[in-house]
């Protein structure tokens, strides 16, 4: 029983009290400490008033009154109350984690080194929040704060400004008697009517706080206020704010505007609050009532706006709003680009917790536009996906894209394997992926998709099981050499060159070189040029072994090697291919609305150039170029020139009617590899222009 009455309540307090933030004593009755809830890592702020140290009953009563008001006031721009504890010795107030505004302003030079614009946006958004908070206090709750100044504004981790310091707050009914402030540092913020009582009859329920708002604006731009006479000097106050500021610090209380009027004036075109950050955050707050076309326009322009936003606001304010919009606001696929851009600011743990669940949910969406957007953005988030998440939650939905009737989705599905291959398990990679690759390479009506399948197969070759790799690669690339689509033949040639370390010397001499030599007489100059270069490389390899048989082991060292960091890096050197079977023009017009019908569009592919150097066991072509749809012309450059292929089709003059199976027994995995079908004869463009492009290279 006695132990019950002798307990120390502070020891049972559910929060750990950490170091004190110094420099706040001038404006606070409390001592501000960092803290956290016991057993959790989430930070909080703990305000402590020591009854014995203060030795002033008035201070204790004011602190208790402030705590009571804060407990009952709930508003986004007022300090958020969490918990409190009162003992004989101390008064504890726990709130969301905040720091004094003065700390933020002093560190702005290091927080926003990129541009002055970030600091300006941070201040504009902060002042907007203060005015909005005062609108709530003065007009809705009928309270006067009476102590608005730099020392009573606190900033949370999201960069939001919060009203604190409610020790001097009074009901609006007491406008004719301003409170006496205990701390002498507040005297310089007293409005003129406190000195000249004759002006009190003109006071309004907001006049005292509007004077305080004027003092706050002056301090934000000019530093700590020494005396009220300094308010006459504008200093660094922006021109967009000067007219409003002058009204706020007017000697006549009745001339000071209502805070709601300040919001209206400053949000007009050309007003101080009329900027991208304020408009963006307000749109996100109201996104539930926005029309779908408004949401689409907003999310399309948001990625560019994010460049100028302060990082803490983007990470802790914009990103949570985007996630909420995704989960509850039916935001659609347009939210993906800004979502992934902001995701780059997160730690790995935060990314797994906040972004990955959104990705998994989106992959299960039946909406085609969403699927295309996800596949297009895959390279930006695939590194954060855990293998178990990929195999169990994502890959089953990706499989359907291989058989989709729309070539855009098929093409992006093929490309997605480049990013996902390192995370796929044995069955998904060596069975499921190869089964669909076999069908696409041999039967897809789009020549570009057939080519891209060959390209992607070469890029992920290092991840296949060695036995599967031995069984598949030669047969698959040999099949590509007989494709009637010229870029597909080029892709097959370069794929052989890029994966040369995976072939036995007997395979090179008996299977690969005979297939390549046929293309030295190909109707297309580009195909012939690449065939000659790669043939020379393989011949050089054989010649070296012939001269020095001890090199055979070195040449065949990687044939049975499993995927390793070095092998992956080597594969990526040839793999800077931007494979795109449908033009960017088509994407811009169709990506947000994909029909079930496959558009009769020409295909495009990309591939890296082969080098003129002989191929050795430790060298791989490193130059990456882009092949898009253009007409075909002879290249005068010694290296491969990848240009745009606009409106490419096949004609009878250039059609290669070759149905041979190329001795590709290993390519017939699961009996799904079939000979290439004869392609319908169309008109083939007379020329192909060449142009280098690195903008769309996928590394």
Automatic annotation (TrEMBL):
<feature type="region of interest" description="Disordered">
    <location>
        <begin position="593"/>
        <end position="699"/>
    </location>
</feature>
<dbReference type="InterPro" id="IPR021133">
    <property type="entry name" value="HEAT_type_2"/>
</dbReference>
<comment type="similarity">
    <text>Belongs to the protein kinase superfamily.</text>
</comment>
<dbReference type="GO" id="GO:0005524">
    <property type="term" value="F:ATP binding"/>
</dbReference>
<feature type="domain" description="Protein kinase">
    <location>
        <begin position="15"/>
        <end position="273"/>
    </location>
</feature>
<protein>
    <recommendedName>
        <fullName>N-terminal kinase-like protein</fullName>
    </recommendedName>
</protein>
<dbReference type="InterPro" id="IPR051177">
    <property type="entry name" value="CIK-Related_Protein"/>
</dbReference>
<feature type="repeat" description="HEAT">
    <location>
        <begin position="394"/>
        <end position="432"/>
    </location>
</feature>
<dbReference type="InterPro" id="IPR011009">
    <property type="entry name" value="Kinase-like_dom_sf"/>
</dbReference>
<dbReference type="Pfam" id="PF00069">
    <property type="entry name" value="Pkinase"/>
</dbReference>
<dbReference type="InterPro" id="IPR011989">
    <property type="entry name" value="ARM-like"/>
</dbReference>
<comment type="function">
    <text>Regulates COPI-mediated retrograde protein traffic at the interface between the Golgi apparatus and the endoplasmic reticulum. Involved in the maintenance of the Golgi apparatus morphology.</text>
</comment>
<dbReference type="InterPro" id="IPR000719">
    <property type="entry name" value="Prot_kinase_dom"/>
</dbReference>
<dbReference type="InterPro" id="IPR016024">
    <property type="entry name" value="ARM-type_fold"/>
</dbReference>
<dbReference type="GO" id="GO:0004672">
    <property type="term" value="F:protein kinase activity"/>
</dbReference>
